[in-house]
Amino acid sequence: MTLLIAVALGVLTGSSKAFEVIYIIWIHIIVQKVRALDVVGVVPESPWYIYAPLALVFCALSALARQRHLPARCISW
Model-level pTM greater than 0.85? Predict the structure, then answer.
């Protein structure tokens, strides 16, 4: 799931900085065991099943965004 979010944010923002900031916050939340935002499933009552489809949505959005960017980079001879 982390990889899908990283790819999606990289494609949508064009930089790795957005994911780096979110990842630091994300790890802090996991270490503090915040149940509502635990996407890994460290806490037994975590709603991880909500975040798995969300990662797939991010993947689909990044694929659409990447497909839209590719024709704009046509090389003219």
Answer: no
Domain count, the chain: 1
**pLDDT digits 0-9 by tens, 8-37:** 778 778 888 888 888 888 888 878 887 777
Residue 16 identity (one-letter amino acid): S
Residue 54 inside a domain? The answer is yes
- Residue 76 in domain: no
Q: Rounded to an integer, what distance in angstroms lies between the CA atom of residue 76 and that of residue 53? A: 39
- Measured distance CA(7)–CA(43) in Å, rounded: 26
Instruction: Say if CB 45 and CB 35 are below 8 A apart.
Output: yes
